[in-house]
Amino acid sequence: MSEIENVVIIGSGPAGYTAALYTSRADLRPLMYEGFLWGGLLQTTTDVENYPGFPEGIMGPEMMQRFRDQAERFGARLKTEDVTRLELSPDGGVHRVWVGDEEHQTRTVILSMGAEHKKLGVPGEEELANRGISYCATCDAAFFREKRIMVVGGGDSAMEEAIFLSKFGTTVQVVHRRDEFRASQIMVDRAREIENVEFLTPYVVERFEPGDEGSLSRAVLKHVDTGEEKVVEVDGAFIAIGHQPQSELVAGQVETDEDGYVITEGKSTRTSVPGVFAAGDLVDHTYRQAVTAAGTGCQAALDAEWYLRDTPMEAIAEEHWAKVRSA
Ligand code: NAP
Asked: Whose alpha carbon is nearest atom 2 of ligand 1?
């Protein structure tokens, strides 16, 4: 049986790498499973202009490489593999982590698996991502100054993005599949009051099409009731139909809300299981920024460090070996 780890970090991105940086600098020798698709959502973005400290901006993948290098420099052990199974000890103690047949045991776990933008799943969406199609208005609005913009969705995010984007684009068309909106009335009213915001309902996007230069040029919509097709010339389309937290690994083991986001206690990163902490977009359905995720990664590392300090290893080891002996 391998030694019991201090910290296993699952999932990478600003939260995970920051947790790895802090726990390695605290001499905890973290073991991090960053996943095959390491780096999280920032790997799929281009310029990041809103991360403090980079006045010229930085490309998302380069930024993640730097986060990674910094964690590695202080001794974080990074594994580019996906964790396949977790068995959390409900009362704390020793948690078990599997990557295929390989098992690790650990006193603390930091969950930072992130969230995925929900996709429409229509033709052209994947091909034109970062070439006109975006999932983040605060990241990409500046690329669409004086351009024709579309926002897809009918929730608060869609309204918020439409309001924000109206300051950049010549027009912002909100495409939603129903005449009613899931968004709060105040947000819908605010969007409606803006002169260059227009609503197209009930429409769904059939497909996105490129122009001669290979970037987004048209969206083909379909009227939900009549089936009539409508072609809209557009330079930028922001898909705002919600997020999907990547919490399947811990489903049923830590407390989550009805949308699958991991619930943490107060302002801490403590989950419902002692010794298990969560950070980043796996927890946060409000701010979802690289800088806020990095901040909670730091908090998770400190919470884990304090937990290890305050939970004597002797008691854990005794309980652990008792379990092993009786197994
Ligand atoms: P959301 O409330 O789940 O809304 C998602 C929207 O996308 C819905 O209108 C839904 O349509 C639509 N949609 C989902 N899948 C679709 C598909 N495949 N094709 C077309 N449309 C699709 O998500 P959200 O707007 O991201 O908000 C998430 C949470 O954050 C909410 O609790 C929200 O209140 C909160 N939030 C608050 C603020 C704020 O207060 N300022 C800002 C942003 C977010 P249907 O309605 O037809 O299902």
From this structure: 155
Give the start-to-end residue ranges of the domains of the chain: 4-116+243-326, 119-239
Spell 77-111 as b/e; 16+ CB within 10 A means b: bbbeebbeebebbeebbbbebeeeeeebbbbbbbb
Q: From ligand 1's centre to the CA of 188, what distance in Å?
A: 12
d(C-alpha 82, C-alpha 11), whole Å: 8
Phi, psi of 46 (to 5 degrees): -95, -110
Active-site residue flag, 136? yes
The pLDDT tens digits of the residues spanning 17-37 come to: 999 999 999 999 999 999 998
Say how many C-beta atoms besides its own lie within 10 A of residue 160's C-beta.
18
Report the distance separating Cα 283 and Cα 288, nearest Å.
Answer: 9
Out of 136, 235, 281, 298, which one is annotated catalytic? 136
Predicted local distance difference test score (pLDDT) of residue 320: 66
Q: Tell me which of 27, 139, 235, 257 is the catalytic residue.
A: 139
Ranges of H-type helices in the chain: 14-25, 60-73, 137-140, 156-165, 185-192, 290-310, 313-326
**CATH architecture assigned to 4-116+243-326:** 3-Layer(bba) Sandwich (3.50)
For residue range 197-247, what is the model confidence (pLDDT) as tens digits? 999 999 999 999 999 999 999 999 999 999 999 999 999 999 999 889 999
Calculate how far, in angstroms, residue 194's C-alpha sits from the geometric centre of ligand 1: 20
- For this structure, is 298 an active site residue? no
Please tell me if the domain spanning 4-116+243-326 has the same topology as the one spanning 119-239: yes
Whole-Å CA distances, 53 to 48, 58, 74, 134, 316: 11, 10, 21, 24, 42
Which residue type, as a one-letter code, is found at position 48? V
303 a catalytic residue: no
- 27, 47, 82, 140: the catalytic one is 140
Contacts of 301 (CB under 8 A, 6+ apart): 7, 18, 19, 20, 21, 22, 23, 26, 110
- How many other C-beta atoms can be found within 10 angstroms of the C-beta atom of residue 16? 37
> In the CATH scheme, what is the code of domain 119-239?
3.50.50.60
Give residue for tokens 């920032």: 42
